[in-house]
Amino acid sequence: MRQLPVRELFGIDSDLCVPVFAQREEHVPEIDTAYRFNRDVTLAILAGFARNRRVMVQGLHGTGKSTHIEQIAARLNWPCVRVNLDGHISRLDLIGRDAIVLRDGLQVTEFQEGIIPWALQRPVALVLDEYDAGRPDVMFVIQRLLERDGRLTLLDQNRVIAPHGGFRLFATSNTLGMGNTTGLYHGTQLLNHAQLDRWNIVANLNFLPPQDELDIVVARVPALSDARGRGIISAMISVAALTRKGFELGDLSTLMSPRTVISWAENLQIFGDVALAFRLSFLNKCEDAERAIVQEYFQRSFGEDMSGDGLIAAR
């Protein structure tokens, strides 16, 4: 492992240096050359890697929170494992459980480590995805990892695990522990404030500037890289921006994420029709009472009505 300046790796004006592994291994994410980094969030995550800070990235869905962490890990050759804390993840899944295995033809009971003890003993960045959807019993397991020493006690094994020097802990969340206040994120929980207080750094990731978003969509759908295609994508991003503003003002209950814009562009390649691809990618997800508003956004951005079945040619 060697220390490299952030200026060299990410082109960010900072004196921070970050460890980089010399070799890649199977748990290192693949580098996405089209990914665009947010400066402040990048520095926050890099501080987590460089100084072993516990970093939470919060923001609306589709802003690339988990991917942001993974893409930084990819450039550091740092192994990275994501765990989605949905309602089905239990304490036993994280810590481990006794399992019956065969030893010399005999069935014996053996403790099988969960993902936390496994990661804790390795140079791994563990990303707790959808952190605000975790069950209370699961969250109290995680709370111990947020302490400065981060030791984990396995009561059933009478064993204490000290974290590896290369272990790092990150989390992503749609809310900041206040639960489903907007009605957009069903299943999110109220988080213990004492636990939130243990996260050393909390970064907020918003949507990208329109030009950066356009560059990402073009990189994903190269067939739209000419002037005509860029014009179509620019109008798509305009629709997305209007839905985001409508959501902020309370006019809409959902919004278009960059992921949805990419799906729209990809579906355009399948159906050859901007409006049909829009209908299938986003409009059909909207509440009936809100579709007229979204169709108006489409008209304002493309200068055409969604006539009849909502079909207009991509031009």
Q: How does this structure look, described?
A:
This protein is α/β, with parallel strands linked by helices. It folds into 2 domains: 2-204, P-loop containing nucleotide triphosphate hydrolases (Rossmann fold); 210-302. Helices cover 39% and strands 17% of the residues. The protein has helices spanning 6-10, 39-51, 65-76, 91-95, 115-120, 136-145, 193-196, 210-220, 227-249, 258-271, 274-281, 291-302; strands at residues 2-5, 17-20, 55-58, 80-84, 96-103, 106-113, 125-129, 152-154, 159-161, 168-173, 201-204. Helix 8 (210-220) packs across helix 9 (227-249) and helix 8 crosses helix 10. The longest helix is centred in the C-terminal third of the chain and has 23 residues, at 227-249. It is globular.
Q: Short description, anyone?
A:
With 315 residues, this protein is an alpha/beta fold. It is built from twelve helices and eleven strands.
Topology of helices and strands:
Elements: E1 2-5, H1 6-10, E2 17-20, H2 39-51, E3 55-58, H3 65-76, E4 80-84, H4 91-95, E5 96-103, E6 106-113, H5 115-120, E7 125-129, H6 136-145, E8 152-154, E9 159-161, E10 168-173, H7 193-196, E11 201-204, H8 210-220, H9 227-249, H10 258-271, H11 274-281, H12 291-302
Parallel strand pairs: 3-10, 3-11, 4-7, 7-10
Antiparallel strand pairs: 1-2, 5-6, 8-9
The computed structural class is: alpha/beta
Instruction: Give the overall average pLDDT.
Output: 87
Low-confidence segments: 179-188, 308-315
Distance between the termini: 51 Å
Report the CATH topology name of the largest domain. Rossmann fold
Strand order of the largest sheet: 4-7-10-3-11
Q: How many beta strands in the DSSP annotation?
A: 11
Task: Tell me the name of the CATH class of the largest domain.
Answer: Alpha Beta
Level-2 CATH architecture of the largest domain: 3-Layer(aba) Sandwich
Query: How many distinct domains?
Result: 2
Radius of gyration: 23 Å
Helicity, in percent?
A: 25-40%
Shape: globular
* Sheet with the most strands, sense and barrel status: 5 strands, parallel
The count of helical stretches stands at: 12
Strand content: 15-25%
CATH superfamily of the largest domain: P-loop containing nucleotide triphosphate hydrolases
Order of H and E elements:
EHEHEHEHEEHEHEEEHEHHHHH
